[in-house]
């Protein structure tokens, strides 16, 4: 467990074995690592027996942090490569008595005004913004898939005997599947990363109530852990809260966008990021023909150059506009997935729309 804060991010982190597992091993692990332009934050929930689960989660986060910090590519690619390395590390250690070990992984890399979220398993990320709580991630679990197919309701899933069965985790195979997407951050945003020891027993209405009290992040995670233990504490509990103190400009690279079709293999996502896609090809083609026009029509070189520059700017502005709309749509859809507010005069209602 590591915790620290950076100048424009304030962090709280706490993990607990859980009331019903007192005296046992804590298979959860958490990370809060400040970096010059932001930070790296993560939660991992190990599985495969006490010793194996504890090893898997710790190994995953140690590898994630090392590879991400040492990487030289753009942050989305570094995060993907770090998740791949974490998966390989768990797979390679899953031998002998540790066969079958694995771990969930929820990692958030904050780079200036953006949060990059990589998600494997059923640990969750939430965003509190303007009094509204939005769930940012979909669980990779058997019961979550049944809910998405309409077989189970959210209430039935919460108490189902297979609610802890994940359908995707590090260590399951040599090729890792994950979801990766980006989010623009605003001043006043509060992020929550947690294991299912918290989200599985504390209703989202209560999460909203605790997160909205305005307490410092470290006090907030303490209250969240207490709430999970008051609800029975059947599992290890981990919470990381990150407060955004300043709005910062977005990085220059395009933020990754989740296709909304569940986890993809990491190499597929890496290939898409490295190739640059259709936009890069289009801009290079436009630059080539602009230069060719300047050479072939020297008398009109100024007009040709301005036309090429104008078209390039139009393409970039259009790309950014579409990306912003898609990110806003993802947040709105995330809000619609939240459980409606329960009764209680002292609990604020869960809003479901993003301003």
TrEMBL record:
SMART domains: PP2C_SIG, PP2Cc. The chain crosses the membrane at residues 278-297, 303-322. Residues 10-244 form the PPM-type phosphatase domain. InterPro entries: PP2C, PPM-type-like_dom_sf, PPM-type_phosphatase-like_dom. It holds the Pfam family PP2C_2. It comes from the Bacteria. CDD domains: PP2Cc (cd00143). SUPFAM superfamilies: PP2C-like (SSF81606). Gene3D superfamilies: PPM-type phosphatase domain. Residues 333-355 are annotated as: Disordered. Keywords: Membrane, Transmembrane, Transmembrane helix. Coiled coil: none annotated. The keyword Cell wall biogenesis/degradation does not apply. One of its GO terms (molecular function) is protein serine/threonine phosphatase activity. This is PPM-type phosphatase domain-containing protein.
């Amino acid at each position: 467990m590591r915790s620290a804060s950076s100048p424009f991010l304030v962090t709280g982190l706490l993990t607990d074995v859980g009331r019903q597992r007192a005296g046992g091993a804590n298979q959860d692990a958490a990370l809060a690592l400040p970096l010059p332009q932001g930070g790296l934050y993560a939660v991992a929930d190990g599985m495969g027996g006490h010793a194996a689960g504890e090893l898997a989660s710790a190994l995953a986060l140690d590898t994630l942090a090392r590879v991400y910090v040492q990487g030289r590519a753009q942050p989305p690619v570094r995060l993907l490569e770090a998740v791949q390395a974490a998966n390989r590390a768990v797979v390679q250690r899953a031998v002998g008595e540790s066969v079958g070990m694995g771990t969930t992984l929820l990692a958030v890399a904050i780079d200036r005004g953006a949060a990059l979220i990589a998600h494997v398993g059923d640990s969750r990320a939430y965003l509190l913004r303007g009094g509204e709580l939005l769930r940012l991630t979909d669980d990779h679990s058997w019961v979550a898939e049944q809910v998405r197919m309409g077989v189970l309701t959210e209430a039935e899933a919460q108490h189902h005997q297979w609610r802890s069965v994940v359908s995707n985790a590090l260590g399951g195979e040599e090729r890792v599947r994950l979801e990766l997407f980006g989010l623009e951050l605003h001043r006043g945003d509060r992020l929550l990363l947690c294991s299912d020891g918290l989200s599985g027993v504390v209703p989202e209405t209560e999460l909203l109530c605790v997160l909205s009290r305005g307490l410092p992040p470290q006090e907030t995670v303490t209250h969240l852990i207490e709430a999970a233990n008051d609800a029975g504490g059947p599992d290890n509990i981990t919470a990381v809260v990150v407060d955004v103190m300043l709005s910062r400009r977005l990085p220059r690279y395009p933020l990754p966008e989740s296709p909304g079709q569940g986890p993809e293999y990491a190499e597929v996502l890496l290939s898409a990021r490295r190739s640059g896609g259709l936009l890069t090809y289009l801009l290079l083609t436009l630059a080539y023909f602009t230069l060719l026009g300047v050479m072939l029509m020297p008398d009109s070189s100024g007009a040709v150059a301005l036309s090429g520059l104008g078209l390039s700017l139009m393409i970039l502005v259009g790309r950014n506009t579409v990306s912003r709309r898609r990110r806003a749509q993802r947040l709105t859809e995330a809000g619609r997935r939240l459980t409606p507010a329960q009764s209680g005069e002292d609990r604020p209602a869960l809003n479901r729309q993003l301003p």
